[in-house]
Specification:
The structure is a homodimer of 218-residue chains.
Chain A (H helix, E strand, L loop, with lengths): L1 H14 L6 H7 L14 H13 L12 H18 L3 H8 L4 H16 L4 H31 L7 H13 L7 H4 L2 H5 L3 H18 L8
Helix pairs in contact in A: 1-2, 1-3, 3-5, 4-6, 4-7, 5-7, 6-7, 7-11
Chain A binds a DNA duplex (19 and 19 nucleotides) through loops.
Organism (chains A, B): Microlunatus ginsengisoli
Keywords (chains A, B): DNA-binding, Repressor, Transcription, Transcription regulation
Pfam family, one (chains A, B): TetR_N
Chain lengths: 218, 218
DNA sequence: ACCTGAACACCGTTCAAGT
DNA sequence: ACCTGAACACCGTTCAAGT
């Protein structure tokens, strides 16, 4: 059952989330797909196990009230890097909403950091969801590039050329119809995944700072 | 080719994104799956067409510099509601990163509103990605509940009982291991999808207000 | 208890053949 | 140009049969 997770992670890294099929995992273990059902209820549970294994690699810092902004950013960077280390897992996370033991440990740690920082319980809870979702979504977008570069037939496909392609696409649009986009080509295509992730983190933390006592409408 | 989109949207609404197969769409049209390939390159293009059709329902307000905060929130609410009206489309959007003509029109309008509000071009561009991603992710989470309620065998499954289930789950955790979560059960499970979406919007706009001249690191 | 092969009911996509 | 049936190479899952 542990070797099942290991085999799944190998396939995930090599061929992406869609390639983690019952048959492929069983094949890597030298057996048939039906054998897996003795250890795992279905494909969804297998994916959930992979997800929680990856989340287990993320460090959660002890809450230090004076440094909550750095700490929450540091944690999210750890989660982001763990997902980038396992390309494809972000897709699994988006499809599942993680609830395994390691995910709980992360939520617990994030709540400790955020409430130590003076956020209300309600805002801390909402922030945990929002930060997790944001981190996952950016990691997912990064791996979309990876998959596309992988199975495209252009041997020069790489992160650089994807940006170049986007730049050419925006620049080629009719300026009359798209005055904003065509006048902002440079700004729209600058910055790699890491820089863009940093922007979102800075922005979310700034937003939390301003809404630490936000209340439900009505 | 227009009827293909209509058939796809019908299946999407009735059975979710996974049910929009070539065979199902062709079946609804009284033909075979192979016939669709005369009008559409592959399943991905079909999904992209559905996505752009839904995005076409979203209104984009004329930029009014004094009201950029309300305007951008209003736009995102429109996009959110359009996706909730077509359960399942959010999953398609997450998998594709929309680039159709209607998506371009939306990006153009958002950039106009945000730059009118005084955000730098760089921040406006990053904000468009972030807001679109946030809106899609929340709509997607909403429809996850919907799907689960749909195919669960519990006839009482509904939004209310999902929350009740989560509440019971959190309350049942060992307090020694999860002191934060168990002491915040009420706050963690309060607020429906709409209220949570509003929180994120308020937070993102507050964050943008504080980072309107953010620059790339280094 | 665990594993297996074979089968069932599905997929997306291709392709030769028709009109 | 458009449509079709049949086929290919896959899926997840079940189940009777083995050890």
């Amino acid at each position: 059952m542990d070797s099942i997770v290991a085999a799944g992670l190998e396939i995930l890294a090599a061929e992406g989330a869609d390639a983690v099929t019952m048959r492929a995992v069983a094949g890597k273990l030298g057996t048939g797909a039906a054998s897996l059902y003795a250890h795992v209820r279905d494909k969804g549970e297998l994916h959930a196990l992979l997800l929680d294994a990856v989340i287990g690699e993320v460090d959660v810092p002890e809450a230090d009230p004076a440094r909550w902004r750095e700490q929450i950013k540091q944690f999210c960077w750890g989660q982001y890097r763990a997902m980038v280390r396992h390309p494809g897992i972000a897709a699994v996370s988006l499809a599942h909403i993680p609830t395994g033991p390691n995910a709980l440990r992360c939520s617990e740690g994030m709540l400790a950091i955020l409430t130590a920082g003076g956020l209300s319980k309600l805002v801390a809870g909402l922030a945990v969801d929002l930060l997790t979702q944001y981190t996952t979504a950016v990691a997912y977008e990064d791996t979309l590039w990876w998959v596309r570069a992988e199975d495209g037939n252009d041997p020069f496909a790489s992160e650089g050329s994807v940006v170049a392609q986007a730049k050419a696409y925006f620049a080629g649009l009719p300026p009359a119809e798209y005055p904003m986009i065509t006048s902002m080509v440079e700004e729209l295509t600058t910055g790699d995944g890491d820089a863009r992730f940093q922007f979102g983190l800075d922005m979310i933390v700034a937003g939390l700072d301003n809404l630490r006592d936000w209340r439900l409408p009505g």
